[in-house]
Write a structure and sequence with these properties.
259 residues; alpha/beta; two-stranded antiparallel ribbon
């Protein structure tokens, strides 16, 4: 199974309630969402940053990646990595990337062949086109893909209510993992808004962002209370009419279930 999917599944379940005296203090925090770094330039430097902050994944894009891949992967260490494909992804291309250690792929629906998604690995993330209609969004739930990638604020610095509406409209149509590309300047309140809309992971630019900014985002995700309901309990498909997220809560709320 994809390491990124395993991480998303673990986060959606939350950490188990600790037992015994002092157990709460020893239990590590569970972040509200996973953190993925986008690297489109300065690949090796960005990869090293993600390794140092122990990011949940790295998404690579750009030209001539094959020639740089060995150095990038070495710099990433244990961080699972994927590729944002610009061209067609057929069986041969998927197998070639898998052999190099690729954990997940992000691609537009028109570029992925049906045979390619039948491969056990890597995980497939469907890149959501801008302005996708309700019919398109409803069809995603039955597609053989593992998650959906939605990019917000291209070139922008702040999230707007329209961005949250876009996320919420997509989230209400399917229950697959939703990963949202956001600016590296994303604030704690903006992260809370994405969490409330049911986002499972945020992806920010790691190639051009200072390590300090990436660390701040990770710390914000750790401090942010996670959603009360697990992903499997959301009823996030169009049939349920889900619009927003669940009531957030912190790990301390589990105290009532402890012995």
């Amino acid at each position: 199974m994809s390491k990124l999917l395993s991480r998303l599944e673990k986060l959606s379940r939350g950490s188990p309630a600790p037992m015994g005296f002092g157990a709460a203090a020893r239990t590590p925090k569970t972040p509200a969402m996973a953190l993925i770094g986008l690297i489109s330039q300065n690949h090796k430097r960005g990869a090293a940053r993600l390794a140092r902050i122990e990011a949940d994944g790295a998404l690579l894009e750009g030209t001539n990646l094959d020639g740089k891949l060995a150095d990038i992967v070495q710099a990433l260490g244990p961080v699972p990595w994927g590729v944002k494909a610009a061209g067609e992804m057929d069986v041969e291309r998927v197998k070639a990337l898998t052999e190099k250690g690729c954990d997940f792929l992000v691609a537009s629906p028109e570029n992925v062949t049906v045979e390619a998604v039948k491969e056990d690995k890597p995980a497939f993330l469907l890149s959501l086109p801008a302005g996708a209609g309700d019919g398109f969004l409803r069809a995603i739930e039955d597609l053989p893909v593992d998650a959906v990638f939605l990019s917000l604020c291209p070139g922008g610095s702040s999230l707007t209510l329209q961005d949250l509406i876009t996320v919420g409209a997509a989230r209400s149509m399917f229950d697959k993992y939703l990963i949202v590309g956001a600016p590296a300047t994303v604030s704690p309140s903006e992260l809370a808004g994405l969490r409330d809309m049911g986002v499972d992971a945020v992806a920010v630019d790691a190639g051009r962002s200072p390590e300090k900014a990436l660390k701040a985002i990770k710390e914000s995700l750790l401090d942010l209370p996670r959603q009360r309901k697990a992903r499997s309990e959301r009823g996030g498909s169009a049939l349920s009419g889900r619009v927003g997220g669940s009531t957030p809560y912190s790990d301390e709320d589990d105290d009532e279930y402890r012995l």
